[in-house]
Specification:
Elements (H helix, E strand, L loop, with lengths): L2 E2 L8 H6 L5 E5 L19 H12 L3 E6 L4 H8 L5 E4 L4 E3 L5 E3 L7 H15 L6 E4 L4 E4 L8 H15 L2 E5 L2 E5 L6 H11 L8 E6 L2 H13 L4 E5 L1 E2 L2 E2 L7 E3 L2 H21 L3
Length: about 280
């Protein structure tokens, strides 16, 4: 059961203590976490206040910021627009470092052609269903049905399942989206853990904070808490007007606005500690 963080109340003392480590790694989903969900992926925009707090975290001593997104790494970086961040894109299949270099696992190369073919077939399916949007992310593909009539979703799901089966791909379900992926054991959890280890945040002195709003973020919550009991995990948003009941996240906030308030408080905690230590 998650504990709700209220914007009008102070940050829980236990959370504050667990986020005081050095280094601190922030792992943040974008859509629905930093930026409000948009009807189409290309319409999404991150509030200037959120961009500012991320820029300030990048400058803070001992802090690393990583975007953890289902978008392609380059697209997620474009949407966030903050230099100096790490970007984990395509649910972990690619990583963009702060210098702009993108790394992709070599075993994904064999699936570039099947994903491209899946995109073509998905567009054919979408042409007959108003409101369906196909997003080509090279290493994965997303079929969004947020704008489609609910009655069309079962047929869409069956068609996309057949595309995945015939091309040897894996199908996963997100928030009003179907994801076609290579059948490789990579997800936000494996990628988040690899980066946390890379920057030294998995030590006893380090701190990890992870926030997201969708089922795919649950992989990161589960892996990080299992590897680092002090990791702070936050689920963003509500379902049917209530916190997500089956989330493994430890904490919950209502929406992207509440997420911004929490990040601002975390930043103030970090900078206040720096001032006390004379950094």
């Amino acid at each position: 059961m998650t504990a709700t963080i209220q914007p009008a109340l102070p940050m829980p003392a236990d959370m504050e203590r667990r986020l005081a480590g050095d280094p601190l790694l922030l792992l943040l989903d974008v859509d629905g976490t930093l930026a409000p969900i948009a009807p189409r992926p290309e319409y999404a925009a991150m509030p200037p206040e959120t961009r500012q707090v991320l820029e300030d975290f990048v400058k803070a001593s001992g802090a690393f910021v990583s975007i953890l997104s289902g978008r392609a790494a380059g697209d997620a970086f474009r949407l966030v627009g903050v230099d100096g961040v790490w970007t984990i894109g395509n649910h972990g299949f690619e990583v963009r470092d702060p210098a702009g270099d993108v790394q992709v696992q070599s075993d994904l190369l064999a699936y570039e052609a099947p994903i491209a073919e899946a995109v073509v077939r998905a567009h054919t399916v979408a042409a007959d269903i108003p409101g369906v949007v196909v997003e080509d992310k090279r290493w994965t593909a997303s079929v969004h049905y947020r704008l489609a009539h609910p009655s069309s979703v079962p047929a869409l799901n069956a068609s996309v399942e057949e595309i995945a089966r015939s091309l040897g791909l894996r199908l996963t379900h997100g928030k009003e989206v179907l994801e076609l992926r290579p059948p490789v054991d990579v997800d936000k959890g494996t990628a988040a853990l690899a980066l946390a280890e890379r920057v030294g945040a998995m030590t006893q002195r380090g701190s990890v904070f992870c926030a997201g709003d969708d089922r795919t973020d649950e992989d990161a919550f589960r892996v990080l808490r299992g590897a680092h009991p002090g990791a702070v995990t936050v689920r963003v948003g509500r379902e049917a007007g209530r916190p997500v009941e089956d989330s493994v996240a430890e904490f919950f906030v209502d929406d992207t606005r509440a997420m911004l308030t929490l990040l601002q408080r975390m930043l103030e905690q970090r900078t206040s500690a720096e001032r006390r230590q004379g950094r």
